[in-house]
């Protein structure tokens, strides 16, 4: 295989390491396994354009992306649209898609596992024109991320601490909003505090990560109008892996979801794979089964 990598030098892990030395190590590992390898090291602001340039190259090749969840989400969108296989190198804080693909989180171990890996077809989802490989969220999560973005942090641990502080602030004033939903053709209307729709349903672990990325269904998670006390209980149930028994959370599996917000506030936000985006009054969400090709460790898939 020909591997062409794009490394976001502003990504979490790459900020604190010799990224040029790492690129040489990656080249040596892939060439040892009989592949050709080249890489680009670029700042965060240039990642998307560089990914698009690499994906448009003539001839069969694999687009490797190294960075956090935002970088990986952007790379998945580019790879999907260009019909180019994607290799995910986890260099962020949570690395949620990498976890779902069973890629080791130690980036040097990840190189070895990917160099001996195989190409598999997995699912990717869209919310209107925006694709996502992890989740689309409205309500509490965007509120928390907006608060976190007002705080300063310089490292992955600093980001985690900022997230905890933002959670504490958001908990005191949880959002409540009306939504009209059509889930696989069935309409309903509710007042809720949060909706998260995942690219494949979450597994049974503590982190919101699917056990399989080729299940072919969306996971729809709806939290009713939450009080601060209910949010604390929900957070505890998430940390202990018992959130499916929480009466404030409904889980529905679906192929298509339509959302309408009759009282949408100006400046309202949603998140796509953890990144804030403007929230449209009407959102159509669908899963595209088996349309994303990914390089994965052989041990991760049957």
Automatic annotation (TrEMBL):
Pfam families: DAGK_cat, YegS_C
Annotated keywords: Kinase, Transferase
GO terms of molecular function: kinase activity; methylglyoxal synthase activity
Record-linked InterPro entries: ATP-NAD_kinase_N, Diacylglycerol_kinase_cat_dom, Methylgl_synth, NAD/diacylglycerol_kinase_sf, YegS/DAGK_C
Statement: the UniProt record of this protein carries the keyword Signal: no
GO cellular component, one term: cytosol
Domain DAGKc: 43-131
Signal peptide: none
A biological process from GO: methylglyoxal biosynthetic process
PANTHER family given in the database record: METHYLGLYOXAL SYNTHASE
The protein, known as: Diacylglycerol kinase family enzyme
Organism field: Phyllobacterium bourgognense
């Amino acid at each position: 295989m020909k591997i062409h990598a794009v490394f976001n030098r502003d990504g979490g892990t790459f900020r604190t390491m010799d990224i040029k030395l790492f690129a040489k190590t990656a080249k040596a590992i892939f060439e040892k396994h009989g592949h050709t390898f080249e890489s680009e090291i670029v700042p965060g602001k240039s990642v998307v354009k560089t990914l698009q340039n690499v994906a448009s190259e003539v001839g069969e090749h694999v687009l490797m992306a190294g960075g956090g969840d935002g970088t990986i989400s952007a790379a998945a969108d580019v790879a999907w649209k260009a019909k180019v296989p994607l290799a995910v190198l986890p260099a962020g804080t949570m690395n949620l898609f990498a976890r779902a693909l069973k890629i080791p989180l130690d980036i040097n171990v990840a190189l070895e596992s990917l160099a001996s890996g195989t190409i598999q077809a997995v699912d990717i989802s869209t919310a209107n024109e925006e694709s996502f490989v992890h989740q689309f969220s409205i309500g509490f999560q965007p509120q928390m991320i907006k608060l976190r973005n007002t705080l300063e942090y310089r490292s992955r641990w600093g980001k985690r601490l900022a997230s905890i502080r933002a959670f504490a602030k958001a908990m005191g004033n949880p959002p409540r909003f009306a939504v009209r939903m059509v889930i696989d053709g069935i309409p309903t209307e509710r007042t809720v505090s949060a909706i998260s729709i995942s690219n494949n349903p979450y597994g049974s672990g503590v982190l919101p990560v699917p056990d399989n990325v080729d299940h072919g269904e969306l996971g729809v998670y709806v939290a009713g109008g939450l009080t601060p006390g209910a949010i604390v209980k929900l957070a505890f149930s998430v940390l202990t892996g018992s959130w499916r028994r929480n009466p404030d959370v409904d889980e529905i599996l679906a192929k298509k979801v339509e959302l309408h917000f009759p009282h949408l506030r100006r400046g309202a936000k949603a998140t796509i794979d953890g990144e804030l985006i403007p929230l449209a009054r009407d959102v159509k969400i669908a899963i595209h089964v088996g349309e994303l090709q990914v390089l994965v460790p052989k041990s991760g898939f049957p």
